[in-house]
Amino acid sequence: MRRDEGLIEEGQEVIDEMEKGPVLDVALIAAAQKVEHYEIASYGTLAELAKQLGHADAKKTLGETLQDEIGADQKLTRLAEGGANDAAKVPAQEA
Ligand SMILES: [Fe+2]
To answer: What is the mean pLDDT of residues 42-71?
Structure first.
């Protein structure tokens, strides 16, 4: 199994195990961000390798893909910070 398949499977488990609602939404955002971070690490490494090996076209393409992945991660962060995290807050129970 490829690592990204494991991350996707982890996201599916979240869907299967949690009730629909704001907490599930936050868990899905987190699961999606794990995938984006994996992709950012992978494309960043490959883009640098392509650069060092002198493959300018590959470096350009991988660099563009890296920027797409960074953009997707930033959108997910905005989604979390723009209300999803607040919607999932549960008031602390008094002892
Ligand atoms: Fe992605």
So the answer is: 98
pTM over 0.90: no
3-state secondary structure of 55: coil
Instruction: Please give the CATH number for the structural domain made up of 21-84.
Output: 1.20.1260.10
Q: N- to C-terminal Cα distance for the chain?
A: 45
In the reported structure, the alpha carbon of residue 13 is separated from the centroid of ligand 1 by a whole-number distance in angstroms of 19
The CA 90 to ligand 1 mean position distance, Å, reads 30
* CA-based nearest residue to 64, from 76, 47, 79: 47
Q: What is the DSSP letter of 54?
A: T
Domain-wise residue ranges, the chain = 21-84
